[in-house]
Amino acid sequence: MFQSIAHLGRLGRAGWALTREGAFELIDPTDLPGPPATAVRFGRLLGRIVGRHTPKDARLAAAFARLGPSWIKLGQFLATRRDVVGDEIARDLSQLQDRLPPFADATARKAVEAALGRPAQDLFEEFGPPVAAASIAQVHKARADGRDLAVKILRPGVDRRFQRDLQTFFFAAQTLERLDPQTRRLRPVDTVQTLARSVSIEMDLRMEAAAISEIAENTAEDPGFRVPKVDWNRSAKRVLTLEWIDGIPIADRDALEAAGHDLRRLGALVIQSFLRHALRDGFFHADMHQGNLFIDDAGNLVAVDFGIMGRLGTRERRYLAEILWGFIRRDYRRTAEVHFEAGYVPAHHAVEDFAQALRAIGEPLRDKTAKDISMGRLLTQLLEVTELFDMKTRPELLLLQKTMVVVEGVGRNLDPELDMWKTAEPVVGEWIKRNLGPQGAVASAAEGAAGLGRLMFAAPDLLMRGERIAAGLAEMASSGFHLDRESVEAIAREEARKTRSGRVALWIGALSLAAIAVAVWW
Fold first, then answer.
1. What residue intervals traverse the membrane (predicted)?
2. Which of 102, 118, 135, 282 is the most exposed place for a label (fewest CB within 10 A)?
C-alpha cells in the first residue's frame, strides 16, 4: 500500500508536469474508457489555466525533459513505439534532447578511481573537464600512452533512480491493463519490460564496449565505415574509455564541403552501412542520429555512442530483405507471402487481401521521383497496415523502422536528391542472392545437416526425459493433481492482496486528482 502511494505521488508529479506543458491537448479522450477520459479532460482544462504555452509540437518533450533522466529515456523509447502512442506523439517525443548539466569534475575523478581501482592521475596523463553530458553518463577528454581518449562515466546514483522510476512505470502499466483490458493488445507491461532491459544494458558500460567490439569485427572489411577502439585496460562497469574521434560532425555540411568530401557519396554510405549491418549482421546501431556520426580525414563514417543497439534474427532479416526487394520490384504478392511465411499475419487472413493492402501502399509511389519516396515512411505505413490484419507488435521491427527514419534523414540532409531505392538495391540484392539464391540453399542444407547431427547425439537424453515425463503424467492421471495446504493459502492471500491494492490505488488516484484541483483552485 505504501509503495502504491509513492508510485501515485510520482505519477501525480508527472501529471502536473504534463499539465503545465499542455501535453494533454495531444490526447483525444473520445475513445478512452470513463476514468482515463475524465482525467484527460480535467488535465486539458487545467492546462489552459496554468499552462506555459509551450509550442504544440514539443509539449511532451518539454514535460519529459523537466521530469529527469528516467523520463527522458522513457520518452525516447516511446518515440519508437508509434503503435502505442501514435504518430503525433511519436513526432513530439522524437525531439527530446538527452542533455543535462554535467556533474562536478571531482565527482568524475572519484568515480574513475572507484571503478578502476586507481586515481585518474595515475591512469591518464591528462584528464580534462566534461565535453558532453546526458541523462546516464558524461564524457571527458583524456590522454594516455600518447593517445587522445574519450572517457565515459556513469552519473553517480543514476542506477538507483532508474530502478525507482521503473517500478513506477511498471505500476502505471499494470494499473492501465487492469482498468482497460483493451490496452493489453498494446502490451504496456511488455513495453516497460523492454525499456528496463535496454536501460540495464546501458547502465553497464562493459556491454557497450562489447557492442563496439562486435561491430568492429563485423565491419572490419567494410569500405568507409569504422568505430572507435576500446581501451579495455581503462574500462569497467561504470567507466568506458575509447579512442578519441577527431572528425567533422556529419551535420556540418559546410565543413564537410570545405574539407573536400563528396556529400553524395557520404549520403549513400550512411544508408548502405546501416542496411549492411541490419541485413548481413543482424546487429545495428539503433541511435544513428547526426550527433553520433562523424567523418574522419580519410572520408570514413565513424559512429559513436553504442548504448542502444538493435538485433534481428535470421527470420527478421529475411523478412526485411524480401519486403524491401518486393517493393523495389513491385511484387506485392510475394511481399504478402513473406508476412504469412514468417507467421506475422495469422493464417485466417487471405494472402490476396493482404497483397491488395500492400499495393495500396506501393502504387502511389510510382508517380513520384526517387527523392520524394521515403523508405522509413514506407515501413511506417506497412506497420500501420499490418495492424488491420492482426499482426502482433514486433519491438525489433519497430526499432528498425525508427532507426531507418533517422538514418534516411541523415542521408537526405547530405544529399537532398538521394534515391533511397537505388542506394539500397545493391545491399538488399546482394543479401537476397547470398541467402535466398543457390549459395543460400547450400548453406541452409549444411546447417540442417549439422542440426540433425546434434539431434542424434542428444537423442538418448531426450528419450530418458520423455520417459520420466510420461511416468509423471500417468501418475497424475491416476491420482490427480494436488496442491498442498500452504500453496492454496498462499494463492488465496495473493489474490486478496491484489484486490485490496487495486481498490486502494483507484481511491488514492481519485483523491490525488481532487487534491491537485483544490490546490490549484485556491
1. 504-521
2. 118
Nearest to 104 by CA among 126, 130, 83, 128: 130
Are the beta carbons of 250 and 256 closer than 8 angstroms? yes
Cα(108)–Cα(148) distance, integer angstroms? 18
Give residues with Cβ within 8 angstroms of 344, minimum separation 6: 319, 386, 391, 392, 394
What is the C-alpha separation between 432 and 440, in angstroms, rounded?
9
Other Cβ atoms within 10 Å of 330 Cβ, number:
13
- Kindly state the cell numbers that stand for 106: 571531482
* Helix extents (H) in 180-291: 188-202, 205-218, 253-258, 263-276
From the centroid of its chain, how far is CA 387?
Answer: 20
C-alpha 453: how far from chain center? 37
The model carries a pTM of 0.71
Annotated catalytic residue: which of 92, 159, 222, 287? 287
Query: Could you tell me which residues are beta bridge partners of residue 283?
Result: 311
Q: Which amino acid is at 205?
A: L
Pick the closest to residue 238 from 73, 114, 135 (CA basis): 114
Instruction: Name which of 506, 518, 516, 517 is nearest 4 in CA terms.
Output: 506
Backbone phi, psi, residue 136, to 5°: -105, -35
Average pLDDT in the 100-125 region? Answer: 94
pLDDT tens by residue, 401-453: 778 888 888 998 899 888 877 888 888 878 877 776 554 444 444 444 444 45
The CA-based angle 198-203-208, given to 5 degrees, is: 80
d(CA 404, CA 289): 10
Please say if 287 is a catalytic residue.
Answer: yes
The pLDDT of residue 510: 42
Give SS3 for 416: coil
Q: 336: which residues sit within 8 A by CB, 6+ positions away?
A: 351, 352, 354, 355, 358
Beta partners for 230? 242
E strand map for 230-356: 239-243, 248-249, 283-285, 293-295, 301-303, 309-311
What is the Cα–Cα distance from 493 to 500, expressed in whole angstroms?
11
- Which range has highest mean pLDDT (158-172, 218-232, 373-387)? 218-232
- What's the confidence (pLDDT) of residue 347? 85
Whole-angstrom CA distances from 116 to 121, 136, 153, 330, 400 are 12, 19, 11, 56, 35
Sole residue written with cell 594516455: 144
Cα distances (angstroms) measured from residue 514 to each of 12, 42, 46, 519 = 11, 10, 12, 9
DSSP class of residue 204 equals: -
